[in-house]
Write a sequence for this structure.
């Protein structure tokens, strides 16, 4: 069985790009509640799904290291000599698993995968885009520290925290799951969602990895009942109905196209979907739609505003109104 890669045991299987920890801290960035699909699979090694592939990332002081695994689903397609339909109905059969089990062990454990120059270039571009490495974080930290004494005092504790530039579909439907929830439970929900409806990618150390479901898979009429059985509660209806509305009314490129419209227009468009309030819409705008002026506000941010910035308005209120949201942001 293929195993999760570890830099110290098979360095020849890894590729790298220059990136100082002051510009990116994997632990702080991947585990802070932006994305819910990364797990620490060995000390300092984070494994997750990005761009339809399974990756393990780790870092040294000045280098970001990455290993990309071969997709089992793609190998099944080639070996069967035909294309398989992706979406809710995709399953890898026991027969197919047996067929390529030994091959995977060889490819992942005994030798490095053959990678073309073009593959390496595309992988680097994927990482640079996902972590927005074109943005110089140290310059921003200096700017923010000069403007905000409180930030300057705590910045050294939280170096290298970056906003991810996520796939809009994954970001939206993951954040619909966050309502009245906490990170560890959200992670479990998103994982069950992918296992139930996403295309299988590969299996490592008894852990199966799946792609995030397509809009068509999420919009299927049977999804709500299936997700309720998996513990999604009322969120099951919001997930299915939002996907159905996008497919039927807006089209498959609608979410991606929101990257090119102004922030408030994108936020209002997202708020028209079932289960999407202002906070979820702002999270999606900020973390996947390039709206850096979006500031997601919840009760935790409200408490920080009162504690650290002496924000006194709305002390008698129990909920965040639109007016409070604007002022705190």
């Amino acid at each position: 069985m293929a195993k999760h890669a570890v830099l110290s045991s098979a360095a020849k299987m890894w590729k790298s790009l220059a990136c100082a920890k002051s510009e990116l801290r994997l632990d702080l960035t991947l585990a802070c509640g932006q994305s819910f699909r990364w797990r620490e699979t060995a000390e300092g090694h984070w494994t997750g799904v990005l761009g339809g592939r399974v990756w393990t990332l780790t870092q040294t002081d000045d280098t970001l290291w990455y290993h990309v695994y071969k997709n089992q689903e793609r190998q099944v397609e080639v070996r069967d000599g035909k294309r398989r339909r992706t979406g809710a109905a995709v399953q890898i059969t026991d027969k197919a698993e047996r067929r390529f089990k030994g091959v995977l062990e060889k490819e992942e454990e005994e030798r490095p995968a053959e990678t073309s120059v073009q593959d390496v270039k595309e992988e680097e571009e994927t990482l640079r885009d996902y972590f927005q490495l074109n943005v110089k974080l140290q310059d921003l930290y200096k700017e923010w520290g000069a403007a905000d004494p409180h930030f300057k005092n705590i910045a050294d504790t939280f170096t290298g925290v970056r906003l991810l530039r996520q796939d809009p579909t994954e970001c939206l439907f993951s954040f619909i799951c966050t309502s009245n929830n906490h990170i560890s439970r959200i992670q479990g929900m998103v994982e069950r969602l992918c296992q139930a409806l996403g295309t299988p990618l590969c299996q490592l150390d008894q852990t199966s990895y799946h792609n995030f479901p397509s809009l068509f898979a999420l919009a299927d009429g049977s999804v709500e009942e299936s997700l309720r059985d998996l513990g999604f509660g009322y969120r099951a209806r919001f997930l299915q109905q939002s996907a159905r509305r996008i497919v039927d009314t807006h089209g498959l490129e609608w979410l991606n196209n929101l990257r090119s419209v102004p922030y408030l227009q994108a936020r209002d468009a997202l708020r028209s979907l079932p289960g999407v309030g202002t906070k979820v819409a702002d999270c999606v705008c900020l973390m996947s739609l390039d709206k850096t002026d979006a500031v997601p506000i919840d009760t935790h941010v409200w408490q920080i505003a009162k504690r650290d910035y002496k924000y006194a308005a709305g002390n008698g209120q129990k909920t965040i109104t639109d007016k409070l949201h604007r002022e705190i942001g």
